[in-house]
Amino acid sequence: MSNNPMLSLRDFSVSFDTARGPLYAVRNVNIDVADGESLGIVGESGSGKTVLSRGAMGLLPKRAAHRSGTVIYDDHDLSQAPRKELREYWGTGMAMIFQDPMTALNPVRKIGSQLTEGLRVRLQMNKRDAKARGLELLHRVRIPDPEAVMEKYPFQLSGGMRQRVMIAIALACKPRLLFADEPTTALDVTVQAQVMQLLSELRHEMGMSMVIVTHDLGVVAGHTDRIAVMYAGEVVEIAPTKRLFANMQMPYTEALMKSIPRLDAPSGQRLPVISGRLPDPTQPETGCSFASRCPYVTDKCRASTPPLVEVAPGHSYRCWFPIGGSR
Amino acid sequence: MNRALPILRRLGTLLAVIVLSTFFLSCLLRLLPTDLVDMILSFGTPEEKAALRRTLYLDRDVFTSYFMWFKDFIRGDMGIIYGTGGGETVWSHVTRSLPISLIIMLYTQILALVIAVPLGIFTAYRAGKKSDRIISNTLFTASSVPNFALAFLLIIVVGVKLKWFPTLEYIGFKDDPFQHFKHLVLPCVSLGVGLAASYTRLLRTDVIAALKDDYVTMAASKGLSDSRILLTHVFRPASVTLLTAAALNMGALIGGTLVIENIFAIPGFGFEIAYALATKEFVALQSFIAITAIGYVIFNVTADLLIGIVDPRTRGSR
Question: Which chain B residues contact residue A172 at CB under 8 A?
């Protein structure tokens, strides 16, 4: 195994054809995920984070989505790989868990068949071995009474249970890189923490890399090594988790942080929101993409696009007037 | 949980629908502009007419006569065919003709589904591409041809000109299996093509919708092949509408067989109904239509049960 990153995105862009012209969902993203690393991708709805993760894996429909740039997984360039070749990596190399376990599990098939399917098709296990491994997986994601759950349909399980089942399915063929797309968004707050904890533990046990996509900084705070903040399809700040929380540079990151509800805030206080909306992704723009909503905006921000600059090892941001800098 | 309860409730509904529909039917019989007895026994003596009136329970009030009729009906005593001198019972006509029609309906459904399932899945998978557009448009054209028009076309071209298939008569399976199928090709194709076209379009729409669902992306992310995903993940949830339509179409097929049986001179149930109508055999007709209504209800319940098997979420809730 080389020292190269597990996943490497270079100048990675995804666009969709729409009636109003091409829609740039992800623009020129450069991200590496190291072996065993956990990376958080944070951004609001529409920032392109889901498209980024699905695009990196190659799961977007070929006909509608255009990818450019390179995607290197484990020293294999997958940017131009046909679906047939990508499939060889799916499940066994890269796997994904989805936001809503209600819609991501097939409603008319039993948990057991959905769980063992990958094992039987991809790892050529026989029925008995696959079932034994399936039970072990359910046990591993802390599902009580796995035998009974195998015979159930998704609608017969609670949300938290369904998400655990989905984690078990994603991990079935021992992937080395797991994409978790909003893994806790559809869950109750009490269950969210349990599921994140479980994911972290399983990552350490299996030594896999993980990319957690979320809109909630709080979710990834304790479970990632690094965080990339996305806005309007671009990475606007990327830093080691601790450093990002202590030393954020990008006003958007600050705004995201401020909009997390705090228990110690005086009651009755209004929750800060980021005013305005994301820029129209079908319209080419000049200047910083956050300019229209940034509290510190200047004429320079509107006129020219800030480059991604590195302020410290592993910490880059995209802003003319970073927080803490001279303004 | 009590599993028997929903089934009992459904049987109750079924009975209610049957009773109501047959009751309205018997009311209609009383609304005939002429007296039924006068019509059957135009030259009978008053005594004979009174006897017939008693036999048909027409001397009682609407409710009593209905329940007397229904009691006899359940027992298979459906009266006689008056036009043939009273020698034949209605029941004998039913037992002779109904199986033929059911066979035609069954073959037609099988034919339609055998065409529609692969085409529906294929066109959905290739949605918007050339192959999809060619197939979909061809089927759209086919579905707009009425089945009797198609029947005549087939008779002229395939039957008379090419002489590939016979155009008249029904041969029982037991008598000659080969001729049995050969004689049913044209009737079933006439009925089945339009059906296949509408089934294909239904399935295509549902498969396209299902392909956009998260669980399909999830299945793909396991590294499964497209054909496996289509067959094991997409087809079952997408076939619910198709199943419902297939079952409801059994009702429509009863009407379809009426026309087709008359064109191909097949002595099926539709033929009997048309004949009873033409010869004013209203006593027989009442039973025929009651049987049709019961069949319709049974097909609907079967559809519900099938959907419950295909989609476990709906079990017990319908």
Answer: 222
